[in-house]
Specification:
alpha/beta, SAM-dependent_MTases_sf, methyltransferase activity, Rossmann fold, single chain, globular
C-alpha cells in the first residue's frame, strides 16, 4: 500500500481521537520563529487538519498540502469556517505551490513518510527569504504500566509498527531541511484521557494496526480490553505525550 493511501479507511477515527497540538506552540513560534498573524504558512502532509488548526486560529493563511483524498476532504469539512484555509492536492516532494511563496513551512506527524532529499529541495523552492521550517509531532510516552502495556500490544499486533521512524530523527536528517546550525528543539507536554470506545478508536486510527477485516483484529481488541480493565481509573486511561518541535531557518539556495 502506498504511504499516501494508508489512512484512507481510518479517517473518522483519526479525526476523533488523534492528539492535537498544545496551544502554547503559537506564542513560542511567534517569539522564536518570527510567526505573525500575517505569516503565510504551508502545512505539508496536513492530513485531517489537526496541524493547520492552531495557525488558522492565529489568523494565518494556511495552504494545507495533502495527497490523501479522504484525509483532505475531512480537513475541508472541519476547517470550512476559516476563510484563510486553502486545501491543496499535492505531496511534500511536489507541493504545487509557487516559488518563494510562504513564510513558514510546517510538517506534523507525516514527516517520516517524506522522501527527505526531494522534500528538502521542494521546501527551499517554496520558501521566502528567511522563511522558517517547523517539524512537530506528538510522541507517546512509555513510562507508566499502562503505557508500557499499550506499547507491547502495538508490537504484538502491529503489521509494520517496528518500521515507524518518527521517534528517532537524526541531526543529519534535520540538516536536509534547515540551514546549517539554525534549528532548535523545544518540548511541550500534552495528554489525552480515553474511555474504552475512544481508546479503541485511537488504536484503530493507526495505519500499522489490523483493521476490522483483518483476521487478527478480534484478538487485538480482546487484548486491548484486558489492558483497559487492568489499568483504567474511573473508567478512563491516560495517554501522556511530549510534543516535539524543531524550528529553524530554511536553507536559502538563491
Amino acid at each position: 500500500m502506498k504511504s499516501t493511501e494508508r489512512f484512507s479507511n481510518r479517517v473518522d477515527n483519526y479525526v476523533k481521537y488523534r492528539p492535537h497540538y498544545p496551544v502554547a506552540i503559537i506564542p513560542y513560534l511567534c517569539a522564536e520563529a518570527g510567526l505573525t498573524h500575517q505569516s503565510v504558512v504551508a502545512d505539508i502532509g496536513s492530513g485531517t487538519g489537526i496541524s493547520a488548526a492552531p495557525f488558522l486560529d492565529n489568523g494565518n493563511t494556511v495552504y494545507a498540502v495533502e495527497p490523501n483524498k479522504e484525509m483532505r476532504e475531512a480537513a475541508e469539512k472541519s476547517l470550512l469556517r476559516y476563510p484563510n484555509f486553502h486545501s491543496i492536492t499535492g505531496t511534500a516532494e511536489r507541493t504545487t505551490l509557487p516559488h518563494h511563496s510562504v513564510d513558514m513551512i510546517v510538517a506534523g506527524q507525516a514527516f517520516h513518510w517524506f522522501d527527505q532529499e526531494a522534500t528538502g529541495k521542494e521546501f527551499r523552492r517554496i520558501a521566502k527569504e528567511n522563511a522558517y521550517g517547523v517539524l512537530m509531532w506528538n510522541i507517546r510516552q512509555m513510562d507508566t504500566p499502562f503505557e508500557k502495556a499499550y506499547e507491547s500490544l502495538l508490537h504484538q499486533h502491529g503489521v509494520d509498527y517496528k518500521d515507524m521512524k518518527h521517534r528517532n530523527i537524526s541531526p543529519a536528517q534535520l540538516g536536509i531541511f534547515f540551514a546549517e546550525g539554525s534549528f532548535r528543539e523545544k518540548t511541550f507536554q500534552n495528554a489525552q484521557r480515553f474511555d474504552f470506545p475512544a481508546l479503541k478508536g485511537l488504536l484503530s486510527s493507526s495505519s500499522y494496526m489490523p483493521d476490522p477485516e483483518n483476521p487478527g483484529y478480534t484478538a487485538m481488541v480482546k487484548d486491548l480490553e484486558d489492558i483497559f480493565e487492568q489499568y483504567q481509573e474511573n473508567g478512563m486511561v491516560l495517554f501522556r505525550y511530549e510534543t516535539k518541535l524543531y524550528t529553524g531557518l530554511i536553507a536559502d539556495t538563491r
